[in-house]
Amino acid sequence: MKYTYSKKEKLKSKILIDQLFTEGQSVSAFPLRLVYLGITFNDDVIAKTGVSVSKRNFKTAVDRNRIKRLLREVYRLNKATYFNNLTTQHAFMILYIGKEKPTFTQIETSMKRLFEKFLNKVS
RNA sequence: UGAGUAAAUCGCCUUAUCGCUACGUUUUAUACGUGGAGGAAAGUCUGAACACCAUAGUGCAACGCAGUGGUUAACAGCCACCGGCCGAAAGGUUAGGAAAAGUGCAACAGAAAGAAUGUACGGGUAAUGCCGUAGUGAAAUCAGGUAAACUCUGUGCGGUGCAAUGCCAUGUAUACCAGUGCUUGAAAGCGGCACGUUUGAUUGCUGGAGGGUAGGCAGCUAGAGUGUUUUGGUAACAAAGCACCGAGAUAAAUGAUAAGGGUCACGCCAAGGCGUGAUACAGAAUUCGGCUUAUAGAUUUACUUAAACA
RNA sequence: GGCGUCGUGGCCGAGUGGCUUAGGCACAGGUCUGCAAAACCUGCUACAGCGGUUCGAUUCCGCUCGACGCCU
What we know:
Blueprint: H1 14-23, E1 25-29, E2 32-38, E3 47-53, H2 61-83, E4 90-96, H3 104-122
Parallel strand pairs: 3-4
Antiparallel strand pairs: 1-2, 2-4
The structure holds two RNA strands.
């Protein structure tokens, strides 16, 4: 698994997202929350992932874009170490539920904790 | 040098590694190359283009605008001039038509707020009428004030917005209930009403309660375009020549990390170094013109004024 | 992305160019009671913010902020 995060790996379909939020389960490691669902889709990837930041907590689009870019970047760099052993396809949505603007290292550490909790829960 | 006014511009940079996105070439695994946020992209307040509704028609209503002239595709914008207000000045600011068409309104105070001319004193007169002053109030006898009160005058204006609109794919319900209609015309053509006009029915129309889709392509970026020079014009702006092509995503790209540097502020210090901190507002979504609002800091030009020196 | 509606005390909510604003609920104090409830009396706190028009603005006008709704 390379350090990529292309269109195929992004969660884009409205149907999938609705399904994810109604049927999926979640784990959280503040300030992050992961909603996940084991599901099959046609593309040749192991996981489709999206990120989201609430407009309620961050008023300006610049702040929201910045956090979403950080979330995507950390996911891109760390997904290989955690998700190479997944056998079935999954859909993920990573939510930022904090109210403060984070740094790269803060997000990195909390996302690692988040993925460890997720793997423990699944296995 | 201090204080100030106006206009214009910039608004972090470089390298390395790892990525995202559009296009092109190669190949259909990928690899390489090129491009990739703003002055406000924001608010959606305006004016248009474009699309559909009739080639967008008529009248009323509603709404916008309002000194004069110019500019423009158009405008509530911009420019020049006149008048008002503010400032010592440079300059700033201005919803600036009509009260002699009509209706309304004016708290408190005041004799009186539009209907009368009251009181005191003085002048004047035979006397009254008359003239002046006083007091209340934002406004007091003036053909009064008020139109960001109704209104009148002039002028402009059809509606809806790219979630417009067209096509393809997937899927379903021409079912159910109520009302109504078929040439003596229901209803529709997205508008508040009327007229006019066009379409118009055994798969009609309206309402209710529901069922399905929610994917893709086009529209989608070469344009009232950008830069520059010359000419005309006080200016806004216009014309001509030359050069250039500068985003096109859709749970929504334009980034992350590391190192170095720049700028500013503060502190230290034989004076050009060291340390610390800061580096704004903010992210395209059909496209342009304007307005409004947010914005660390820096630069340039012109001007006013005060002091000093020559 | 586009279009629209609203903002009045702690809460609900009326109002309108003129005494900083009706009423209800809530809250606080008092009367009553052995104590409380009910009732009665008193008090408390407001026109989202900024600017303009006006003698005077919660009301009229402009801008900003916030909340909510609609579209396929």
